[in-house]
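During the no-cost extension, the postdoctoral fellow (Dr. R.K.) reprocessed legacy sequence entries with the updated structure-token encoder. One reprocessed record is reproduced below for audit purposes.
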Amino acid sequence: MAVTNWIDGAIDAAFGRERADLAKLTAGGVLMMLGAKATPLYLFQSGLRGLEAEWRLRHEFHGSLSERWSRAVAFYESTHVDKTNRILHIVGIPMIVGGTAGLLLIPSWTPPWAVALGSFSIGWALNLAGHKYFERNAPAFEEDPLSFVAGPVWDLAQIRQAVKSKVSVHVPHFARSRM
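Re-encoded structure tokens follow.
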């Protein structure tokens, strides 16, 4: 408990309370890429919990989990309307999820761990490039922390729909006019 209190205090002091939770997520990712296992998990859950609490306060949200999930998915979809960005996410998010699992489960600094590191890094690069160059907005998780879960679920649904219909990635009707 003392170590986690020290970590929280150090991050709060370095980044300020308003940016500390996002800094925890970033620090967790960096430490995971350096081979750490337990500390990144602590930082992820602590950062996500803090961001979610801030989101609920900012939006004066007191609804059910189902209502919260619906809002998160709707927000995620509204911030991912560019077709190229969506494709980059459909490729990148599975790479991030698989890379994360590998970085946490495979012994650090082994060849399979290096593959997981590459997958994690390239997946993030694809997602961030999609937002910077195509969508021209910040990643959804900066505004809505539940996007860390909504994104992979949404992508899986898009892949499933594309495979079922054997057509390109679904673009909602409100987004077609922007393309």
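The CA atoms of residues 29 and 40 lie 7 Å apart. Residues 1-62 form one domain. The remaining legacy entries will be reprocessed before the final report is submitted.
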